[in-house]
Amino acid sequence: MQTKPLGTRSGLEVADISIGAMRLPKEGDDGVKILRHAIDSGMCYVDTSFKYIGGESEVMVGRAAQGEYRDKIYVSTKFHTGHYDGDFFSADLAYEQIKTQMARMQLDYLDFFQVWGLNDVEMWTAVNKPGGFVEGIKRAMDEGLVKHTGLTTHLLPKDLNPILEQADWCEVVLLGYNFLDRRREESLALCKKLGIGTLVMNPVAGGKLAGTSPVLQEIVDKAGAESLPDLAIRYVLANPNVDSSVCGMMRMSDVDDSIASAERGPLTTEQVQMVDEFIGARSRENAAFCTACEYCMPCPEEIKIPAIMACIYEDRYLGLTDHARRIYNSRGTGEVKAEACTACKQCEEKCPQGLKISEEMQYALANYAEQDG
């Protein structure tokens, strides 16, 4: 696979595809075998964390990185300080946590240790203050326990870009980007300007684009892609401000398919424009559907109306029916589902789109709810 600089601050190069270790199989040695197959195939950066698979992800990554494989791979892990009560953001916690995670992986050093989930400005202030989390990472770096650092985030450019401008210690950023969610393009461009390496998570939109869609198949065919996941990965790689796409690996075929997409090359400028126009025409705004403004809230029955409407949008306008059904039945749409709707229509009175929300709740109930028996 092609490699490119991971920004200029790190001084490293990475392959177009990197290894996401959040969804490795839990049983037996399959996870280690998948990781080593990915490394043997040319991938050199693996993203794991303290919490993935209940900590087993780090164990598998550590096992895969033993012996001759250690010098072939950049092991990157992270820690979300909010997992513990007490002083979440102290330097001592960061330093001790690094040693704990190194011991779990049986490694003498970590290539990257990142601040995980820096998702609000208050957390930025806390981790970056004197005696804060970043100071603990720097201490570990001074002692050779960690080689590089950075952050992961779901912030949008309005809040993220000022942080990037200040974070002179940050060598890499992991953030979400795909053709269904282009909101962080401005931040990707700023990272490139600042020399910060860019790693993209969710290139297939957290699994939305991992399967098939009768609607999106039209643009797959039009762009000449092999499949919907192939289109998604090659779209991300077409952005010159993306250094590597972190793809989740669950099976050997995930490794091979991701590499095949990279080797087909990024989409052309014309193909990217084609995708953007196709998705734009089906945006919530152009579809005159729910824009998640939340004016309908709160619901007297405590239904998460925007979350359920998002499922309907992805099903009806993007053809992602299976994903919509899965999300509807998950915690993401709350404990109270559409069957609790009493058709009081208070939400409809407040909806700027004039949507018949009570009817949409009945649609969700009929099409997504798991049936007993």
Structural class: alpha/beta
What is the name of the CATH superfamily of the largest domain? NADP-dependent oxidoreductase domain
Mean pLDDT: 94
| Order of SSEs | EEEHEHEHEHHEHEHEHHEHHHHHH
Strand order of the largest sheet: 3-4-5-6-7-8-9-10
Q: Strand content of the residues, in percent?
A: 5-15%
- Per DSSP E runs of 2 or more residues, the count of β-strands stands at 10
As for the number of domains, it is 2
Task: Give the uncertain stretches in residue-range form.
Answer: none
Task: Count the DSSP helices.
Answer: 15
Q: What is the name of the CATH class of the largest domain? A: Alpha Beta
CATH architecture of the largest domain: Alpha-Beta Barrel
Task: Please report the distance between the alpha carbons of the first and last residues.
Answer: 49 Å
Rg is 22 Å
Helix content: 40-55%
Shape: globular
How would a crystallographer describe the biggest sheet?
8 strands, parallel, barrel
CATH topology of the largest domain: TIM Barrel
